[in-house]
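Structure ticket #2291
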Amino acid sequence: MILNCAIIDDEPLAAELLASYVQKTPELNLTGVYESAVTAMKELRNNPVDILFLDIQMPELSGLEFANLLPKDTKIIFTTAFDRYAIEGYKVNAVDYLLKPISYDSFLMSVNKVVGWFSEKRRMETMSRDRFVYVKSEYKLLRVDFDDIVYVEGVKDYVKIYFADKRKPIMSLMNMKKIEDYLPHDQFMRVHRSFIVNMAKVEMIDRGRMVIGDTFIPVSESYKEQVQEYIDEHCF
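Resolution: structure written out below.
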């Protein structure tokens, strides 16, 4: 995976150092180096980058102000000589905050965070498009089509996947948060700490429970509001 990146820094030596780091990092492609956010604004709006190395203290427009103008998918790594800006940096969803002088090790650690984020995003988009996933169970990788899943149950450190055709459920070492992230959100809903339901399979909702065949799945208090919103959107 190659990610496009740009550098905005009004200190020429700092910008040159970052550019040298980018050039020796195989995952990165440098598209531009700018001395201010103002000069970079038009170019980055028309040709957004994946990663922006952004100085905070700059004339005319600060890095913190400029960060709010960028596309959501542009990942920001702030670079500054002043650690007092760290909290403000994270308020604008910066991936990381590098304090000058920046070592290559620190630079690489920040880049790896962004590479991991984009890799996960691509994987989730692929699964959502293809509508299936391979699940590891008992040393095997088993194909699971999303439309075949009725519901998922969390059992300690495992998830248990139940199917519409009554085949044997699959047990996999995985937490509920991870499988919740992978399943299409327009089809699957977390209704309880221990249950994720394929809403297309729900036959009836009765007294705070989802009914699927002879199975009753509880809706916990913390998920009632989002379940009610879904019901309201699908009622006459």
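Closing remark: The radius of gyration is 23 Å.
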